[in-house]
Amino acid sequence: MPAGVHEAFVNVGGAQIRLLKGGSGAPLLVLHGTEGSLGWRRYAQALAEHFTVYLPSHPGFDGSQRPVWLQSTFDLACFYTWFQETQGLEGSRVIGFALGGWLAAEMAATTRHAFSKMLLVDAAGIKPQAGEITDLFILSPAQIRDLTFYDASQVPEYDQLYGHDPSPAEREQAVQNREMAVRLTWKPYMHDPRLPHLLARVTAPTRIVWGRQDKIIPVECGTLYQQAIPGADLVVLEQWVVYLSPADKYHRLIRRLSRGQKGLDERALMASQRPSPPPVTPSQSAVRTPVACPGHLPLPLPTTVACSYPRWLGPWRYTEQQHLTQGPDMIGQPRGHGRRTRPP
Predict the structure, then answer these.
(1) Reduced DSSP (H G I as helix, E B as strand, rest coil) percent helix, strand, coil of the chain, to 5
(2) Which end of the chain is more exposed for a tag (fewer CB within 10 A), N or C?
(3) Nearest Cα residue to 37 out of 55, 11, 10, 15
(4) Higher pLDDT pick, 11 / 316
(5) How deeply is 220 buried, as exposed, middle or buried, from its count of CB atoms within 10 A (0-12, 13-18, 19+)?
(6) In this structure, are strands 26-31 and 317-322 parallel, antiparallel, or unpaired?
């Protein structure tokens, strides 16, 4: 554990919750996904240079106790408003990844003063209209990792996390994390049908970040979040966005976005990931030639879209190349109904 980072178990409503805390500055709550917190990783250390980072493990994950009444993501949102009260985090900034993004959205929709700013990264919680969210609970951990990382070779912590055989204790903890994830997200799977309607209540400035190559939660869900949250903006990157990948440039991006900044570094990053269109000959100049994006059906040539951002991000506008249509962003994985039972 780096110097200045502390691990403790804090009491919330009679449950002992594991909390990692480090850094200095304004408080920033980080909410993890279905895999657990994975400890204090490089992204957390990068954020700690500018914020006091609070990284709790959800009840039922990583040794945190689960109250007997906590059975759903909505229950988890209620629990975290209690956590905020005990830690003095009401009105803080928040970053939520996948399940954590869903959790942050539920909290903001039901408790308008919960957050001052939100950053949702590949958030679950909304059901796509055209595709499906990949059913993680019929896949092995190795299969999930293959879907999670766009390019594992760019993740400096990949070998540290996955390059060894897990110990019996690590296996047991992974099983418990997976069981808790099933409990929270099983039915309906990975979404709350009420959430798109409730998100109209959100007043916190919100930015949504998605990877166009996301093979678990399709980028369509990012668009639906943007449409549901008043004033929200959406940043779509060509490569898969997770908080472990790929190294420092994503740490800088997440740090800048969480501070409400958009500068040359981020524009250069987004431009570096944009696929280059094929050469166009004079005879093709009037034809919209498809661009082949890795892992997707061909897309039309990019169209320039002017995007305006909320006032808290600064009084400016920028023009970004974005594809207006998209192919499937996930594998055709069957849901596997009837082959599992919800844990007791």
Answers:
(1) 35, 20, 45
(2) C
(3) 55
(4) 11
(5) buried
(6) unpaired
* pLDDT tens-digit series, residues 78-136: 999 999 999 999 999 999 999 999 999 999 999 999 999 999 999 999 999 998 999 99
**How far is CA 57 from its chain centroid?**
15
Please, what's the b/e burial string for 56-91 (b: 16 or more CB within 10 A of its CB; e: otherwise)? bbbbbbbebbbeeebeebbbbbbbbbebbeebebee
Residues 124-134: tens digit of each pLDDT:
999 999 989 99
Measured distance CA(267)–CA(95) in Å, rounded? 21
C-alpha to C-alpha distance for 264 and 270, rounded to whole angstroms: 10
Spell out the CATH class of 6-275. Answer: alpha beta
C-alpha torsion sign, points 258, 264, 265, 268: positive
* Contact between residue 191 and residue 218 where contact means Cβ atoms under 8 Å apart: no
Question: 54 has which bridge partners?
Answer: 21, 29
- What type of residue sits at position 198? L
Output the DSSP codes for 257-323: HHTT---HHHHHHHHHTSPPPPP--GGGTTS---B--TTS--BPPPEEEEEE--GGG-S-EEEEEE-
Residue 212 has a pLDDT of 84
Residue type at 119 in one-letter notation: L
Domain boundaries, the chain: 6-275
Q: Is the pLDDT of residue 316 over 60?
A: no
CA atoms within 13 A on the CB side of 195: 27
- Taking the model in full, what pTM does it have? 0.74
End-to-end Cα separation, the chain, in angstroms: 35
The pLDDT value recorded for residue 203 is: 94
In the block, tokens 């945190």 appear at 64
Reduced 3-state DSSP string for 181-196: HHHHHCCCCCECCCHH
